[in-house]
Structures are given as structure tokens and as C-alpha cells.
Write a structure and sequence with these properties.
Layout (H helix, E strand, L loop, with lengths): L2 H7 L2 H11 L6 H8 L3 H13 L3 E6 L7 E6 L13 H14 L3 H20 L5 H17 L1 E4 L7 E4 L5 H6 L2 H14 L3 E8 L2 E8 L2
Antiparallel strand pairs: 1-2, 3-4, 4-6, 5-6
Helix pairs in contact: 3-4, 6-9
Length: about 210
């Protein structure tokens, strides 16, 4: 995490708001009140401070009935508050590899890295069923900073949902990384996987759907 930004945000309650919003597609003040058990005005003031400092913005969430509801969500600036496993140095290194060994060299290098990571995870994987392995993989990915969780809800079927990517700059520069991630999930779970990513303002959500 960026310690300077952490210090700027300050209070624990604001960090809790940021973490709650990170694991959602946006939350209203009332939803944050229910989750954090604080007063409406207390939550509202924290959100206004975070919005003033550039970490939150607002949008109108449509309702089935009545007027749209104002919802807070994270901005792109908030990404630096969370774990990052790749930085500008990584991108510079891959660019140098391309300059020296040709245009396909970065993708070959990334493929090799994901191939080794996949083999290591397969060797450690636990669970006899797809669902058991998915729960194990979600736990591992969560520990790696992907803010991952397994869900077996009716809407869309079973999936692993990740609310952060520590290698987002790699995904942006080398989109084939998304395919490498999907292949890795398929190899570990032992079934076909569909990867779906949502990006909007500071929202990052990547869901890996599969059949159990």
C-alpha cells in the first residue's frame, strides 16, 4: 500500500469505507451505515471527505420504483491504496526484453511465468470436487491480494469474484495476461472457465464462472 495515501486518509473508519466499497459495485450511505454500525451523519461526513480528496465519486443507481439512489464508488486514485505486485519497473523490464529479443518476447516471458505458477498451484491444490478446489483457490488468491471470494449463488452460477488485481498495470499493457489467468483457473479447477471483467471509474471486478 501507498503509505503516504494511507496517512492522508487517516481515520480507521475511512479505511473501512474504502475497503467496503472495494468489495462492491458501489454503496449508498444507508448501506454503509448498516455495515459499519455508525451514524448516518458520521458516514456521510467521511464519504464527503474522501470525495473531496479524490478517492470517491458518486453515481445514480436506478431503482425498481422511485428516484435513483445516490451511491458512492471508488475512483482510480484509490487503486494505489491496495497491494501491487507489479510496478513501472516491471513494465520497463518487459519493454527492454522486447527491444532486445523482439516483439513477442514479453508475452513469451509472461506465459512462462504463468505456466510455472499454474504448476505450483496445481501441486498444492486441495479438494476432490470443482467447488472444493474453487474455494481453495479463492482463499489463495485472496491471500495474494486479489480480494477474492467464492460464491455459489443462483445468479450466474458458481464463480470466483475478485475485486482487485495486484497486476492491473500488466493487464492494461498486456491484455493477453487475462487469457493466461483464465487458462490457469481452468487447469487448477479442472473445468472450463469463463472470465468476465468489469471496469468503471475505480471499480475493478473480475469473475471466473465455471460449472460444478
Amino acid at each position: 500500500m501507498n503509505q503516504r495515501l494511507i496517512a492522508e486518509i487517516g481515520r480507521t473508519q475511512r479505511l473501512e469505507i474504502v475497503n467496503s466499497l472495494k468489495r462492491s459495485r458501489g454503496m449508498s450511505v444507508n448501506e454503509l451505515v448498516d455495515k459499519m454500525k455508525m451514524s448516518y451523519m458520521g458516514i456521510k461526513q467521511h464519504c464527503l471527505t474522501l470525495q473531496r480528496d479524490g478517492y470517491l465519486d458518486t453515481w445514480r443507481r436506478p431503482q425498481k420504483m422511485g428516484r435513483p439512489e445516490m451511491v458512492y464508488r471508488l475512483t482510480r486514485r484509490s487503486h494505489d491504496l491496495f497491494q501491487a505486485d507489479s510496478h513501472q519497473f516491471t513494465l520497463d523490464l518487459l519493454k527492454s526484453v522486447q527491444d532486445i529479443y523482439g516483439p513477442n518476447a514479453p508475452e513469451k516471458l509472461l506465459y512462462n511465468i504463468f505456466e510455472k505458477k499454474t504448476a505450483a498451484l496445481k501441486a498444492r491444490a486441495k479438494g476432490q470436487t470443482v467447488a472444493e478446489r474453487a474455494k481453495w483457490l479463492a482463499h489463495v488468491r485472496d491471500g495474494e491480494g486479489y480480494m477474492a471470494q467464492f460464491t455459489n449463488g443462483d445468479e450466474g452460477g458458481p464463480r470466483i469474484v475478485e475485486c482487485h488485481s495486484p497486476i492491473l498495470n500488466l493487464l492494461d499493457r498486456y491484455p493477453i495476461v487475462s487469457r493466461f489467468e483464465q487458462d490457469m483457473f481452468e487447469a487448477i479447477l479442472g473445468t472450463r472457465v469463463r472470465r468476465q471483467m468489469i471496469r468503471n471509474s475505480g471499480l475493478y471486478e473480475c469473475a471466473f464462472y465455471f460449472a460444478v
